Amino acid sequence: MGARREIKTFVENERPQQSSFLEPGQDCWGSVKQRIDIQLDTIDEYCGLAGIDHIDVLKSDTQGFDLDVLRGANTMFERKRVRLVYIEVIFSSMYQGLPRVDETLKFLFGHGFRLVSFYDMHYQNDLLGWTDVLLVEPAYSVK
Question: Does 59 fall in a domain?
Answer without folding.
Answer: yes
